[in-house]
Amino acid sequence: MLCGLAPAAHGANRTGRMFTGDDSGTWLYAALYRAGFATQQTASGEGDGLELRDAFITASARCAPPDNKPKPQELAACAPFLAREFALLDRVRVVVALGQIAWNATLQHARRVDPASVPTPRPKFGHGAEARVRVRTSDGLVTLLASYHPSRQNTNTGRLTRAMLDDILNRARELAE
Asked: Which of 6, 58, 132, 170 has the highest local Cβ count within 10 Å?
């Protein structure tokens, strides 16, 4: 499972598929293809022929927040949707958090499911960080991996490189298998 921030106002809200219609999706889908999680390296929206393999993409928030900064009450209102996806997706072994907001949302979900499964001190976000947490009451622990979000701000500045994103997705593949 990959968890991002929210559907982009001019991306997923328009196209019907997470991470399409903007530069972050261009980066992400090419990386998913290279790691074997997608059948093609481009995605433009529903009906474009792309299929995900052993992957599901979701978001911490369900609406595009102003300035990509959701308020805590917005994230809290969206938390039940993320919880329902975790409940329905019973094969999740790895969660890739694309950005700190997704990292925190996943840790908060894990705390609600099983407070004892969240390590103390609470794992800090940083590209490449890993934590083992429980996201479903009936299952064992899953690995939470942190990646910088593939936003234009991160990719244009070199904060996130192609190799860095590939490393995270290859690690996710390794852990899932």
From this structure: 6
